[in-house]
Amino acid sequence: IEDNISLFAALNNSMMRTTFFTDEQVVRFQALGQIANMTSTELATMATSFDTLGYTTDETLDHMQSMTEEARSYGVNVSSFMSEVNKNLKLMVTYNFKDGVQGLSKMVAEAQALRIDMSKTVSFADELMSPEKAIETAAGFQMLGGAVRKQVNLIYLLLRCIDLERQPNLQDNPIKNFQKWQLTQLNELKN
Asked: Which residue of 23, 119, 158, 190 is 20 to 30 Å from 34, comparing CA positions?
């Protein structure tokens, strides 16, 4: 009972309003807290972020449950994964992820699996919003020359990103798709 009171207080303090939850919702929050090793305050902060984005409590719980499953499927620490997703929920609005929360959580899971710092990735993406920086970066890749230049054919990658109707699974597994593309490029170099 003390855990439920602590959770209820944390949720209402974080949302800055009195919110009532069903017994099932409280049980689900507590279960997620145990699975993800999150405190009541951390759960409340994440629930508030979803609330701010317009999600209902049940939708929030469903998304949080699917995120824990996503983290497990990538073999990353669920607690640090949930914390990273919560820090980056605002990116959903900024970059308009195709699948919303699922798209963001997939990106965070892949970044953590590859040990990539999300803050540096976000910073670089923000810089590329400027046409000058995007052109400068593309030119830098082209200046590498040789096999690297053929490996990093930016026009080819751009066309593949734009042509999602012909390549609907491009975002499903970017690592696998990039590896396939690399093999294609290596085969072309051999010929």
From this structure: 119
Regions of the chain with pLDDT less than 70: 145-191
User: How far apart are the C-alpha atoms of 18 and 93, rounded to whole Å?
Assistant: 26
> Phi and psi at residue 3, in whole multiples of 5°?
-65, -40
Cβ-count burial 111-141 (b if 16+ within 10 Å, e if not) = bbeeeeebeeebeeeeeeeeeeeeeeeeeee
Cβ(44)–Cβ(15) under 8 Å? yes
CA torsion sign for 91, 88, 36, 44 is: negative
> Whats the size of the chain, residue-wise?
191
Q: In the 8-state DSSP scheme, what is residue 167?
A: S
